[in-house]
Each structure stands twice: as structure tokens, then as C-alpha cells.
Amino acid sequence: MARKTKLEKKLDKASSRLPPIVAVLIVVVMFFYTGIENIFSLQTMKDFGFNQYISNIIHVHCDTYCKTNTEFPVYNRILPAENIEKTNQVLVLKTGSRFKLKGYIAKEHVTWIAVKVYNSDKCINGYFLVPTQIKLSTFSSKIKPYALGLFGSNLENSFFTEISKDEENNFRNLLYDNFKKEAFKKFNISKAKDGLNIQKIEESKKYKIIPFLKANSGEAYYCLVNDYSNLDIIYNKYLGSNFDSNFLNLKSFFNK
Questions:
Q1: Rounded to the nearest 5 degrees, what angle is found at the Cα of 240, between the Cα atoms of 235 and 10?
Q2: Which pTM value belongs to this model?
Q3: Is the same domain home to 175 and 154?
């Protein structure tokens, strides 16, 4: 999944000290929140079609980062069984490839997995075929950290496995380190210390606080106002809106 929502961040802090009844209430709230998210996810309809859109609503789907345990050819749509060997694949996900699970559609004897990956600078939405019916509950995986062990389970089967938060965060840290190195190399970045100096920068017309550069408590990095937009572009090259294009990229420099 992309960045956590504000709701999820608050739940992360609170879940470890919640009584069971509150954990149950959190799960109920998340159920309805996720359902509404799926209803308004028109991008799913655009990328995967109406059937996938409806399926995600029914399954209370949550986008999930996963990794293949075996090799899968990816097709641009769900195919009749008799046409699979006659249809050219879009690409092949090798063992260990990362992808974003965007939903699934179960047939009588097989399961089609909706995936999002990147191949260089190209975003690819498609499906791969699991040759059996498998049980998938991305919602169960999502609620596990908040349910005090009462509900939820990791998304795992013999075909693919959910990527751990540790692995995702390690990759984010790698991207952040590369962003920080490039930012300090290309721009004149300074650090303000104590609240008064930070407030002066906030109110300045010449300088701008850089919220996506981490600083110690009571400190903040800042740059010239004219440099900020270019700095923001570099940040998004690594993280921000382009995190998926790095994390899910089959040919990314960072995956080598």
C-alpha cells in the first residue's frame, strides 16, 4: 500500500494499549472505511474493469504489497482458459518480484490476481493466473496490527507472500538516503534550531521549511523559496507519489 492514512497512523499508536472492545470497534470502523474507499475507487474500474471494481467492494479489498514465490506470466486481462496458451503475455514476474495486489477474481477452479508493477518508466496493470482456488483476505491482513491478536492474519500462500512492513520501510529508508544525498548536493540547505528560529523561517518570504527532510526534535531544515519546488520534484522522484514506481519496478536501480 502507499503511505498510511492519518487514521492508520493514529491507530498504530493506540492499538498496543487498547482494551479488546475498542479493538473490535476499530475493526468495524476500518471495515466501513475500506468499503467506502473501494466504492469511490474509480481508478480500479479504469485500470481493471467493472468486474474487478465490484469484486473489490464485495471482498473489502485493501491494496497490498506482495512478492512472488514462483514465476508468473502477466496478461493484460482475464482470459478464457482455452485462450491462455494462445495469448501473448505482457511480461513475466520472476520469483521474488514485488507487485501490488489490486484485487482478485476467483473462477470455479482457478484464481486471477490483479497486479500493478512497473517496467522501467511504464506502469503495467494486469493479471496473473493461480492454477487453483486460493483464499485471500487483504482486509484481514490490514486489520491484524490493530486487532490485538483477536482478528486478522498475514496474507500468505504457496504462490505469493505479503511483503513485511520491515522490508517496505527498509526500502523507504534506502530511497530517503539517496534523496537526501542528492538534495544536499544540489541545493543550499540549512538547519534552523529552536522554536523561535523555526518560526522566523515559517514567516519568511525568502526561505521555506522542508517538511520531508527529517530533523531532530526542535530543529528543521530549510531552503530558498525558489529552490523548494525543484527540491519537491527530487523528493517525489524517490518517494512521495513515485514510491511505487521504485518499489515495484522490475528494472529499478534500487532492486539490483
A1: 130
A2: 0.82
A3: no
